[in-house]
Amino acid sequence: MKTVNIHAAKTQLSKLVEEASKGEPFVIAKAGKPMVKVVALDETPAKPMRRFDFMKGQIKVPDDFDTMMSKEIEEMFYGEE
Question: Is the pTM of this model over 0.70?
Fold first, then answer.
């Protein structure tokens, strides 16, 4: 992969972006230290990740969820009384 310093990247940006869009990524460096990698965007957008409601209707939370096993937990921390 090609590494280009910031000054060269500024002067050749159009050419570099064109190359990256054709599948030739490059790295922009500052004082020889790599800073960013430029790659082409995917043509097909990724499917949005669905996080909320993905198990809707499949799980039931008990009404006493907040107090479930409170006696056992209390015994673990404070011992039996």
Answer: no
